[in-house]
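During the second year of the project, the team shifted from modelling isolated chains to modelling whole assemblies. The rationale, set out in the original proposal, was that interfaces cannot be judged from single-chain predictions alone. As a representative example for this report, we include one of the complexes processed in the last quarter. Its constituent sequences, exactly as entered into the pipeline, are reproduced here:
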Amino acid sequence: MPDSTQIAHGASADAHSEHPPYLRHHFESTEQQADAAGFAMWLFLLTEVMFFGGLFTAYLIYRNWYYPAFVAASHQLNVFWGTLNTVVLISSSFTMAMGVWCAETRRKSGLVLCLILTFIMGLGFLGIKSIEYREKIEKHHVPGFHYSMQSFLDPASDPEVFKEYHDKPLAPDMAVHTELYFSLYFLMTGMHALHMIIGIGILGFMIYRAQVGAYTSGHTTFVMNFGLYWHFVDIIWIYLFALLYLISRHQ
Amino acid sequence: MSEQVQHGEHEHHIVSPKVYVIVFFALLVGTAATVWASYVDLGLWNPIIALAIACTKATLVVLFFMHVKYSTKLTKLTVAAGIFMFLTLVSMTLADYISRAWGNW
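Output from the structure prediction step:
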């Protein structure tokens, strides 16, 4: 065994003079290495599709079962904040895509700028989300012991929403199911926000690494794959926005 | 170093900023359209239109921001397999619910 390791090390020492240092020895070329990394990232994203897909399916079925409760509960969401957050997230996806371009064309300061903008907009998204969550907490719309059905049993008691939608009161046995809507709302947007938090953490690490030129010397795999992750999170939000905020505005 | 990057069997395609800008504006227009459509009472068509616009936006993101249009056949097949699998699982779950307990919960 020690012999073979030595041979392997000897071979690698020779090979290093002929290829970029970031090319792993089990790959034939940098293209093959980049393709393999991209393929692996997509496989990971497919597991994410299945994960969020389960939540979307649960939402689809419960919305059809308890339709009046889901319509009334979704009127509690603020379309303005939702739209603003969609714009913020799409913009951050754009700056991330530009960051990938900067890495590919070896523009270090451009890459750092794009990553910082993406980072800031990611934080902005979470900030807006927390404004929305705070509203739900204040109205006791967080599922649990302190959940209140008041807005649905007596819609007029919630004038801000009532003047826009004029919802009719729900029967108590239907109003109970608004809690299910908010369970799914917090689960889906919460899991999405968790992905954003993880992404923002990785962005911070990348900003630090990009400043020392880690991604602008030809090895762009990390930036490329993070881009895929960030755009995927954007796509999830595109669907969440349509399904949670927009489709139940009319009965 | 850079020469080796150029001479590959599958040459790496760099998507230009122009494409990103166009896609970005298309996504903003899509967002405006879907919000506007939600204010119009279209009955059954409201969720259908909202989902159609969301799917269009997602397709733009996948094809251009995520480079799938320019990537290898393996990647394209992987993405297609993922979408197919997702739709299969959703429709099988729905088929089960609709054919058994619907209305008797």
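Chain A has one domain: 30-246. Chain A has a mean pLDDT of 91.
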